Amino acid sequence: MPIPAHHPVDILRFNTCGSVDDGKSTLIGRLLYDSKNLMEDQIEALERSADITGGGQINLANLTDGLRAEREQGITIDVAYRYFATPKRKFIVADTPGHVQYTRNMVTGASTANLSIVLVDARQGVIEQSRRHTCIASLLRIPHLVIAINKMDLVGWSEERFIEIRDQFEEFLPRLDMKDVKFAPISALNGDNVVEPSPKTPWYTGPTLLGHLESVHIGSDWNLNGFRLPVQWVNRPNNPTDARLHDFRGFSGQIAGGIVKVGQKVMVLPGGNISRVKEIWTYDGPVTEAFCPQSITLVLDEDIDVSRGDMIIGPDNLPGASSDLHAKVCWMHPRPLQCGRRYLLKHTTQTVQAVVTAIEDRINVSTFEPEPDAPDLALNDIGEIRLKTSKPLIFDGYATNRLTGSFILIEQGTHATVAAGMLFPPTEAVKPEYTDFSI
Questions:
Q1: 257 and 147: one domain?
Q2: pLDDT over 80 at 275, yes or no
Q3: Over the stretch 297-343, which tens digit does the pLDDT of each residue have?
Q4: Which listed site, 11, 248, 263, 356, has its alpha carbon 20 to 30 Å from 330?
Q5: Quick one: 206 and 325 in the same domain?
Q6: Which domain holds residue 282?
Q7: Which of 291, 313, 335 is the last residue of a domain?
């Protein structure tokens, strides 16, 4: 469905999760199919594969399950991203695996989401993977959650069953600090309450799933209180044919928090030098202000020392700086996490050496209670750890800023990503010895 060129739209990033065979891939296929976001060749390919994979019926899951193993087994293994749009909004959706073996893939797909859809089979109700994925959505601080109770057609569209499953969730949701949670009865296979409202649920007065995705407010999901720009690249075009670009020196990256304006004072950490913003460049040209999560290039008034891994911030709302870190992690490697192991830690645009100094607890995903004195963290375990880094990180708590409060651990030698981490708030703000070049 085309979007008028003059119509301003924003982008909603969401993921689907839940247990195996709860209908995640089918739901995304239904959203694409019923919202008229498929090309003719895609529809023809679905029809050609119907006799092979769908028993004569179009198998909408094939739109996202592209691996041969996925189609043969009828499960999702890898994260699949799809893009679609309506006149009201653009969408980036991540179809994440349901099997416990691939929980790490679910964490990857959900890490940048504004909204998470947890699917539940109406026949099965709330099972361990439902709780696990809801817990992970809470740990990742995904602002909006939709519990889509699927396959309602297989329980006779029973309002009592819908309420029973909703009550099961509401027993443990208060412990997860999820502020925006919606419940919806759907049938992804038949399309009921997905794009169009269903006459089979007269007792449900809420919006369709797509209607909620189009209308959920996401403007306040990004942290706009403290400017943060992790420097990814020092931009030196040195174009001899363009006088403006001959001595150009800008600092490029994606804004991780806050707003920046031309003329504003900024500080470069860890050095602490202060200057003013002379120019702000985007892909479309110069602007007078920019905000999270735009990608920009800053030009400063003064020619000061800035390199990749530094962070340019607003001097009024300072982040923390420490080499002793306290974090929650989701462990993603078959080899367990143990104290004393050394890893590479990637935070924003820099990578440093890190050692795990303590495992404080492991979270029981059935009760959501911490289990202290855990000897290690196994594959897909979630727990709290302490880390020591080779140099201080400039960071915010994950609850304050998801971009500057997150990191990954990388195994040295193999360079495998072994954990995704969420930092606790710093104990105190950074106090740099700085030089103010703007005076």
A1: no
A2: yes
A3: 999 998 888 999 999 999 878 899 999 999 999 898 989 998 999 99
A4: 11
A5: no
A6: 228-313
A7: 313
